[in-house]
């Protein structure tokens, strides 16, 4: 039986847009769109298709990342991307209830911009869910006290008790920041120009947080001298300092928060796994 009323969760950052329903990931693709440069925006491609056509964009077309730092940077692009993805998955369903995960530090103007983008895309039933509140509920369910969330734009650290947020902090340390450091390293050491999206994937999926790791990584890009395709092999030990320089800021934030809040014995136990992981970053 076809169910008209659907509860859908949407998460986005500067690199990806994800759509989930009932715990099932329905869509996860690059947060990019190619649109015409006109007063009436028209989407020509989005997601993986747009990414594949990035080098074929014409003069009257615009390749854009609609999101930046957890906010909407290009309203027309965001509207077109939301409309294209949601219609692909659900069609013109007026009963669609959207729950959108957003950073905890958004002001009212930025929240309204997100809601308006969905409304102009044809979807009016939108509820914004600040990530700190979601993390607090997850912590209660798992009997934990603290959680660290990272995406391509920001990091959020939350302390919670009994499902309520005690303290929430958002900083501009992200996978994108780590990727930029990696890109600069490859440019300087290997004369290799690696696309930002590839660097983000490298930072998230392949690079190790252990300084002694000697896992070999294959990195692909363009030679900065010949402009030809080029691949190099590096070890996780070589990339670790890049990640350490970025993630040490998170260590400092969490240390400052914990010093201020002074958790009790049970809370310290709940923070054990997080703290061990963070200490390893600075070994």
Please supply descriptive tags for the structure shown above.
Actin, Chain A, domain 4, 2 domains, three-stranded antiparallel beta sheet, alpha+beta, five-stranded mixed beta sheet, 283 residues, 30% strand, Nucleotidyltransferase, domain 5, disordered C terminus
Question: What's the layout of helices and strands?
Answer:
Layout: E1 6-12, E2 16-21, E3 24-30, E4 33-36, E5 43-46, H1 47-52, E6 61-64, E7 67-68, E8 71-72, H2 75-90, E9 96-102, H3 108-120, E10 126-130, H4 131-141, E11 146-150, E12 155-161, E13 164-171, H5 175-190, E14 192-193, H6 196-206, E15 216-223, E16 229-235, H7 236-261, H8 265-281
Parallel strand pairs: 1-9, 9-10
Antiparallel strand pairs: 1-2, 2-3, 4-5, 4-6, 7-8, 11-12, 12-13, 14-15, 15-16
Helix pairs in contact: 2-3, 5-6, 5-7
Describe, in plain words, how this protein is organized in 3D:
Helix content is 41%, strand content 30%. It is flat, with a radius of gyration of 21 Å. It has helices spanning 47-52, 75-90, 108-120, 131-141, 175-190, 196-206, 236-261, 265-281; strands at 6-12, 16-21, 24-30, 33-36, 43-46, 61-64, 67-68, 71-72, 96-102, 126-130, 146-150, 155-161, 164-171, 192-193, 216-223, 229-235. The protein has 2 domains: 6-130, 2-Layer Sandwich (Nucleotidyltransferase, domain 5); 173-283, ATPase, substrate binding domain, subdomain 4 (Actin, Chain A, domain 4), CATH 3.90.640.10. The strands form 5 sheets. A 5-stranded mixed β-sheet has the order 3-2-1-9-10. Strands 5-4-6 form a 3-stranded antiparallel β-sheet. Strands 11-12-13 form a 3-stranded antiparallel β-sheet, sandwiched between helices. It is an alpha+beta fold.
């Amino acid at each position: 039986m076809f169910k008209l009323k659907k509860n859908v969760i949407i998460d986005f950052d500067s690199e990806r847009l994800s759509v989930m329903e009932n715990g099932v990931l329905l869509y996860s693709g690059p947060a990019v769109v190619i649109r015409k440069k006109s007063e009436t925006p028209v989407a020509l491609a989005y997601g993986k298709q747009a990414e594949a056509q990035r080098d074929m964009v014409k003069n009257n077309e615009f390749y854009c990342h609609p999101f930046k730092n957890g906010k909407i940077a290009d309203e027309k692009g965001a509207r077109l991307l939301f409309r294209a993805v949601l219609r692909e998955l659900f069609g013109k369903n007026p009963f669609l209830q959207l729950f959108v995960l957003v950073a905890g530090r958004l002001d009212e103007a930025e929240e309204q911009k997100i809601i308006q983008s969905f409304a102009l895309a044809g979807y009016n039933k939108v509820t914004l869910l600040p990530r700190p509140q979601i993390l607090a509920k997850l912590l209660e369910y798992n009997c934990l006290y603290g959680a660290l969330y990272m995406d391509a734009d920001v990091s959020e650290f939350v302390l919670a008790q009994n499902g309520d947020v005690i303290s929430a902090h958002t900083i501009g340390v992200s996978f994108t920041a780590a990727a930029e450091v990696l890109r600069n390293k490859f440019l300087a050491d290997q004369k290799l120009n690696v696309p930002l999206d590839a660097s983000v994937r490298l930072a998230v999926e392949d690079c190790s947080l252990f300084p002694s790791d000697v896992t070999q990584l294959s990195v692909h890009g363009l030679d900065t001298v010949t402009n030809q395709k080029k691949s190099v092999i590096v070890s996780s030990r070589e990339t670790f300092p890049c990640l350490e320089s970025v993630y040490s800021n998170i260590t400092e934030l969490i240390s400052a928060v914990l010093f201020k809040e002074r958790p009790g014995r049970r809370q310290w136990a709940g923070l054990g796994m997080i703290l061990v992981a963070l200490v390893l970053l600075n070994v």
